Amino acid sequence: MSFNIGPIAKTSSHLLSDLIEILVTLDYFKKGNASKNDIEDVLNHNPIDAEEITDELNNEEVEDGSTRQNRFETNIDDAWFMLNHRAKIYNNLYPFKISDEAIELKEDFASQHYIYILILFCSRLKSFKAKGIRQLWAKYFTQICKFVMSGIAPQNSIIRIFDANSDDRRLHYSTNLKTAIKMLAVEMSVLIQDQHLEMESTSGDMGIDIVAIYQFKDGVRTGNFVMFGQCGAQGENWPAKNFECHPDKFRAIFSTYSPIISIMFTPADYRTADGEWNKISNISGGTVIDRRRIINLLENSQSIKNLLKESLFPEFINEIKNIKNSL
Q1: CA distances, 92 to each of 86, 115, 123 (Å)
Q2: Backbone angles phi, psi at 272, to 5 degrees
């Protein structure tokens, strides 16, 4: 099977909400919507996520079946509150219609809604089992983040994907990491510490997925304005990547006179239902751009129409159809 729900974070409203939206998109229940009863059935028949298993075992020791059902109903109500919050926040770009007891795709579902759907699916790649699909969608997410970076970087900045498997690496920088880093240093207008670079591998990307560089025209070798982006295409473990492109990581290689700006892109809607960060300690290391910031930046930079022209969207739509047909 190309889709398997797997372990569920049952007490994390933002993650449970993601799962609910995915099930609706795939028409998992074969009736055009998902009700609260459908979701309760899913919670009852799938294992709990490892992060919550200790609390679950402690609960099972002291509660009976009725208490457990009440707890699941509370979890679902919390997720429903989150879904209604998203409907207001994302507005026209939100693909779902929420009622008191059910959620379904909007009747006026349009091509622009696939932007939200793709980012959403990237937040739960672990549930998708088709060969190569996780790597492909992670690549799609990086392409989206390249457009998002244009909404952050100064106008006329150079924005490229530095990921090891990208076209920019193959056609512009080089698939050899050391060669690519040297070319990147020229664009950054900084010197390279060759003795430290020689210690690095010739493969990989050193944690740099996207680069944005505003090049000053004065030719001074004290550095241009530089931003490095890391794209963590996952909904749960992305905070472990927060320091992948932190400026301190590159001090031994790039002789910079000002800090490189570090950006962490995540497909997670990493918020509570009042819009605050879900856990403040997980957003350290760089500026976190989560799902709602991604959508907002795409809107503000008027990038949505251009993004939808990318070939990845027809491919993604076809991949969704194939998964739906396999269920």
Answers
A1: 11, 12, 21
A2: -85, 175
3-state secondary structure of 2: coil
For the chain, the first-to-last Cα distance in angstroms comes to 7
3-state helix, strand, coil in the chain (%, to 5): 50, 15, 40
Residue 303 · residue 147 · CB < 8 Å: yes
Average pLDDT over residues 101-121: 96
- Whether this prediction's pTM lies above 0.90 is answered by yes
Run of H or E residues at 210 = strand 210-214
CB-based burial label for 276 (10 Å; 0-12, 13-18, 19+): exposed
> What is the rounded average pLDDT of the residues 86-90?
96
Tell me, what's the pLDDT at 51?
A: 75
The answer to whether residue 62 scores a pLDDT higher than 60 is: no
Q: Give the ranges where 46-164 is alpha helix by DSSP (H).
A: 53-62, 65-90, 113-122, 133-149
β pairing state of 210-214 and 254-255: unpaired
Of the candidates 297, 258, 293, the one whose C-alpha atom is nearest the C-alpha of residue 159 is: 297
Q: Among candidates 259, 261, 254, 260, which has minimal Cα distance to 182?
A: 254
